[in-house]
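Example record

One chain of 177 residues, shown exactly as stored in the release files.
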Amino acid sequence: AIVERAGPSTARAGDKAVFTVTVTSQGTDPGASSRLELLVDGIPVGEAKYPVLQGEGRSQPEFFEHRFPARGRFEVTARLEPLPREVDTTNNAASREIEVEERKIKILYLEDPPRWDYRYLKNYLIRDPTVEIQCFLVSADPRFRQETSLHPPLVPLTAIPSKRQELFAYDVVILGD
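Predicted structure tokens for this chain:
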């Protein structure tokens, strides 16, 4: 029986989504095995090849990863192959929908002096294609061009956003030193 199919209800296109499928079995022969599949809209995208069922009602988690290439709503189904003498096969499948978005995460990164932490994190986030970031160094010269994402290039900040509406436009605000 599939007792749980855990995973995200939303994801971003291109990101890896991790799903956990927990299987349990009762009254099975020692060493019995079955095939567990993960399907997206009916198409197999992952398989745990013949995991040995432990029986005695023990839970066995299996992990699957999948990247959704485009936005949309998808049905993710975990399906367990029935055993030869299995009486009830109604609990051998579990489905759930996932919403995949293409929206990028908007980040505001505020820092006073440009510490090493800032340099590494800023460089990583600026290159990340799933993120739109605007950085602001408080200690920088007013003529310094504040750094932003490369794709798409954003307008550099000239001051720290001071209005509530401006701050709530960001998904994440990172406050450095």
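Notes: The helical segments are 116-127, 164-167.
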